[in-house]
């Protein structure tokens, strides 16, 4: 092994994308193994690699980690993106959990039946503009700092940046009523590690297409 973290998932965003974002933001290079068949997935289970029979799987520091939240907590802690004390960590956790709720809607959107797509898109827009983005707009305005917690770059900033771009793909102009988030997005985009991740050819995955949906259904079908 090269010593780089090794990520096993499908060749698409899904639950691995926030992990890719966090590693990239921390400036960590990683390797990826892509699942393309049900047999590959079943072999991982049979070999005892998947504690709860689920991916993402991340091999890092001699561990085989599963469960997205646990993986990301470890990465954030290891690379000093998890606040300076318990109070800051609690704030980061709260923000991350909130963003994850919004991202779950985006994650499931490609699997919507055709007749529900418009309604689900409207739900994403409504939740983003009325429930989630106002929280972060207010936080940034109140403390007047560049980052969400402790005036220091953290896991919460990475998650928020990913969410902003994911919502904008579906709802262009969604930040029009959020001047603080517009400034935040510009600053984040210009951070060297994130700027690199946003360039073509980086490990960042494109929006899910029909082929990705088909692969997911094929690999995980009961």
From TrEMBL:
It is an enzyme of class 2 (transferase). Keywords: Transferase. GO terms for biological process: glutathione metabolic process. SUPFAM superfamilies: GST C-terminal domain-like, Thioredoxin-like. GO terms for molecular function: glutathione transferase activity. Residues 85-209 form the GST C-terminal domain. Its EC number is 2.5.1.18. The keyword Transmembrane does not apply. Residues 3-83 form the GST N-terminal domain. Belongs to the GST superfamily. Alpha family. This is glutathione transferase. It comes from Rhodinocichla rosea. The gene is Gsta3_1.
């Amino acid at each position: 092994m090269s010593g780089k973290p090794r990520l096993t998932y499908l060749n698409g965003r899904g639950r691995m994308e926030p992990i890719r974002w966090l590693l990239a933001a921390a400036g960590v290079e990683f390797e990826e193994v892509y699942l393309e068949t049900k047999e590959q997935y079943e072999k991982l289970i049979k070999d005892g690699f998947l504690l709860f029979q689920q991916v993402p799987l991340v091999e890092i520091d001699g561990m085989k980690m599963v469960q997205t939240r646990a993986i990301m907590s470890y990465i954030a802690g290891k690379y000093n993106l998890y606040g300076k004390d318990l109070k800051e960590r609690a704030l980061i956790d709260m923000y991350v959990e909130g963003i994850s709720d919004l991202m779950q809607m985006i994650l499931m959107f490609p699997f919507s039946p055709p007749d529900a797509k418009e309604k689900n898109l409207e739900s994403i827009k409504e939740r983003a503009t009325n429930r989630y983005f106002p929280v972060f707009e207010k936080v940034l305005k109140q403390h007047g700092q560049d980052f969400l917690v402790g005036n220091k770059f953290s896991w919460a900033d990475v998650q928020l940046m990913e969410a902003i771009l994911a919502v904008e793909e579906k709802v262009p102009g969604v930040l029009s009523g959020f001047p603080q988030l517009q400034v935040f997005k510009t600053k984040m985009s210009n951070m060297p590690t994130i700027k690199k991740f946003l360039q073509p050819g980086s490990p960042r995955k494109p929006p899910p297409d029909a082929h990705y949906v088909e692969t997911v259904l094929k690999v995980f079908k009961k």
